[in-house]
Amino acid sequence: MGQFYRVAILGATGAVGTELLELLESRHFPLADLKLLASARSAGTTLKFRGEKLTVEAVNAQSFDGVDIVLASAGGSISKAWAKTAIAAGAVMIDNSSAFRMDSKVPLIVPEVNPQEAANHQGLIANPNCTTILMSVAVYPLHRVQPIKRIVASTYQSASGAGARAMEEVKTQSQAILNGQTPKPEIFPYPLAFNLFPHNSPLNEQGYCEEEMKMVNETRKILGASDLRITATCVRVPVLRAHSESINLEFESPFDVAKAREILSKAPGVKLVDDWQANYFPMPIDASGKDDILVGRIRQDISNPNGLELWLCGDQIRKGAALNAIQIAELLVEKNLLKPQIAAIV
Is 42 annotated as a binding residue? Predict the structure, then answer.
């Protein structure tokens, strides 16, 4: 006897929404029913799933009736508008926006790191920021063995982090430049093709942007280390898909490089790409469309005997967003942390 679940994707037509759809199919999630929800503007659109065409519906007050799990990826304001309605209808919302991440009552989960937090949900679970997820998966296996004192992170974030339209904008701008024309930015404040610039999220009074502070605050919450020292610099780069990060870790005492490499070679969600002889290390082109975080260039920090350096690449849309949400849903099912409405023989 197996359990089947009714699932709704809120924001089904976006870059993450369509990836959620693909993952539900490819990972054979036990579905009784799938509902695709979006704004009234997108209502009537059809999307393929398991060889059939499903019609996108405009979200309304009755959309969540009978739904077990809501995978929300339509932005913070939409999540805030519908979270109470979904929870009141008996669903668990897994939210990909930043709306609830730092709420003390809402678990912030990376399944490879803190799956035990799923048991504490009150109908709402937050999916962390993409850069935080990628870094957490890579550094947690080391943190478990020897607690990290300080993290210095520099990110190289692809256009996919700003959505499907941003990815198309980079393509259009690239073509314009190659044709000798002036590129026109619409999604980004500046041309991203053949360019890069600091992440354009709002700055705080200390000069840190919102994206950088997400890495700081969310990593502390996920690792359960409120006093962990973290600093970050987030940069947007002209890559279509998959983010890259340069990570410097400081420990209380030296962390053997060979030991770190061995730990990461066995870590869940990590693929070691560390071929010194061939000078071959993680690249976003190799990480695109992949589930694992590619980690390499593991070396001792020559300026600090207690420091380790590593480089990682991970698909922002996949593990950085959609896959992590699906893994949380799978965790809820596996641990029986929501009440299914349909029982069926597999």
Answer: yes
Q: Which residues are catalytic?
A: 130, 243
CA distances from 198 to 20, 122, 163, 187, 208 (A): 29, 36, 17, 15, 10
Tell me the per-residue pLDDT of 297-324, one tens digit each, with 9 for 90 and over: 999 999 999 999 999 999 999 999 999 9
- Residue 225 is labelled as binding a ligand: no
Is 157 part of any known ligand binding site? Answer: yes
pLDDT digits (tens, 9 = 90+) for 228-276: 999 999 999 999 999 999 999 999 999 999 999 999 999 999 999 999 9
Domains parsed from the chain with CATH numbers = 2-99+321-344 (3.40.50.720), 132-315 (3.30.360.10)
| Helix, coil or strand: residue 344 | strand
pLDDT greater than 70 at residue 343: no
Position 344 scores a pLDDT of 36
Buried b (16+ CB within 10 A) or exposed e, 255-284: beeeebbebbeebebbbbbbeeeeeebbbb
122 labelled as ligand-binding?
no
User: Cα dist. 16→268, 316, 321 in Å?
Assistant: 22, 9, 7
Judge whether 341 is annotated as a binding position.
no
Is 168 annotated as belonging to a binding site?
Answer: no
The pLDDT tens digits of the residues spanning 6-35 come to 999 999 999 899 999 999 999 999 999 999
Question: Count of residues for the chain?
Answer: 346
Confidence of residue 339 (pLDDT cuts 50, 70, 90): low
- Residues 322, 20 contacting (CB under 8 angstroms): yes
> Which three-class secondary structure state does DSSP give residue 16?
helix
- Non-local (6+) Cβ contacts of 64 within 8 A are 8, 70, 82, 85, 86, 89, 91
Give, rounded to a whole angstrom, the gap between the first and last alpha carbons of the chain: 6
Rounded CA separation 166/198 (Å): 16
pLDDT digit string (tens) for 136-157? 999 999 999 999 999 999 999 9
Report the SS3 class of residue 111.
coil
- Is the pLDDT assigned to residue 174 strictly greater than 80? yes
